[in-house]
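dumping this here before i forget
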Amino acid sequence: MSDPDISVVICVYTEDRWEDILAAVSSVRAQSRPALETLLVVDHNQALLDRLAKEYKEYEETTEVRVLANAGPRGLSAGRNTGIAASRGEIIAFLDDDAVAERDWLRRFAEGYEDPRVMAVGGRTMPIWASGRRPVWFPEEFDWVVGCTYRGLPPGRVRVRNVLGGNASFRRTAFDAAGGFATGIGRDGDKRPLGCEETELCIRLTRARPDAILLIDDRAVIHHRVPETREHFRYFRTRAYAEGLSKALVARSVGAGKGLESERRYTSRVLPAGVARGLRDALLARPGGAGRAGAIVAGVLTAAGGYVVGSVRARGGGAAFHVVEIADGEGGRAV
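structure:
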């Protein structure tokens, strides 16, 4: 099989992350396995759009870095769909705007696609804490709260139900089969930190293509910045509640059986082990043990509360999302 071309999509929305955006692009340009192109999709922020267009003007002719406006409604899902439609690669990879990829990131992704049945490959996301180290109370089992790989995911290159959106790649044909990311779910600038749009897409993909294989390769590593505001318990609770709301939307779309398949193992095995580990550390007078155990219990209860509220809203028609088809052709747009 020939080596596939890879387009990288980075969705951006605020000038507050200017230096992070430049670092993300630089990490893509430094890859050992070069990307075909990097697409910066700006989410309804004209000042940022103009500033980035000026910054990368020298790359316009080579199209190595392209700056685009989100062609859909505000939010991460529509931004990703815009990038997919405009991209030219056989594989589309996604990188968060506040993360940097290790040098072999794309090479590891490409290796996963040697099997033609593989439709998606994700990687491992490591936190960069603003304070310089993990808060002692913050359990690794909840690193998904800050957009990172969490304790409980299997190591190595393994099959999974879904990849995690900030460090993921898909074959273009995956979007032909399943459509794009659903709008009405996931991140929308600084609003409530919802998520799960990649979970819903991956489940929809495997329904459309039952033979599809989805992988995570923990050698495809990125480092994700965690701002100081996300190191506090208040954000932890807010994000856990939002995850419950998002999971309710996913379960409403694909059914609780598939929508909560991975979560059942996580809550029945991974989290009890985390609580036990925290209590053991507390008994051994190790810092943060009781806090980690308590945070796990609080996180589960808060997410469960969000799920109940989200389920009621979904049944009442108060929350909905829409699957987006991706236009064909280079430089296309999300429709």
